[in-house]
Amino acid sequence: MTFTKLTLSLSLITGLAFAQLAFAQVDQARLTGTVSDASGGILPNVTVKIVNQKTGAAREAVSNASGIYFAPGLSASTYSVTATAAGLEPAAYKDINLAVGQERTLNIALQAAGVTTSITISGGDLAVVETSSATVGANVNAREVAEMPINGRQISQLYLLTPGAQSSGGGSFDNIRFSGQSN
Fold it and tell me: What is the distance between the alpha carbons of residues 166 and 76, in angstroms, rounded to a whole number?
């Protein structure tokens, strides 16, 4: 390798690393998955409607030729998802929780018309394992904030609930470290 090719390669690797760090700073979630029939065959052009159960805001995505749908830019909330296609029974999922920066995969299987199946998904407050990225984050719900004995109600104290967060002093913003990073 010549010096120019080595420099170009190192620049590309560095750029990709910083692009991943910039992507980790989002406040939105994504929902993606594959739409298939009961036998596992992919289904293109299926309309997937995603509704925020708290605000009622709705978004639609359409599966591509590979049966994959993708809905970026969703706020952290609880959603209901409905998939519809001609000649097939609609599939509905409720209480799909999305956290900040999360990409959740929800694969959808549609049944032939006339076949009745009922699916109830109930996860409560169970944690979802994030497998699409190495980012670390935490959501603090209203109940945790109200019931926690936080001295002075400083938001910096809530940061310490994030996995990997450590206080190296009084717990103020300038004393909190995340996963061993420097101040």
Answer: 25
Question: Side chain identity at 103, as an amino acid letter?
Answer: E
Tell me which residue has tokens 């420097």: 182
Tell me which residue of 143, 67, 140 sits closest to 108, measured CA to CA. Answer: 67
Query: What is the C-alpha separation between 106 and 137, in angstroms, rounded?
Result: 21
For the chain, how far is it from start to end, CA to CA, in angstroms?
38
- Sign of the four-CA dihedral 44, 88, 37, 103: positive
Structure tokens at 162: 């994030």
CA 25 to CA 44: how far, in whole Å? 32
Residues linked to residue 61 through DSSP beta bridges, in sequence order: 48
* Alpha-helical runs (H) found in the chain: 3-23, 142-147, 155-159
- The pTM of this model reads 0.54
The dihedral through the CA atoms of 126, 132, 133, 134 has a sign that is positive
pLDDT band at 68 (very low <50, low <70, confident <90, very high): very high
pLDDT, one tens digit per residue, over 39-66 is: 889 999 999 999 999 999 999 999 999 9
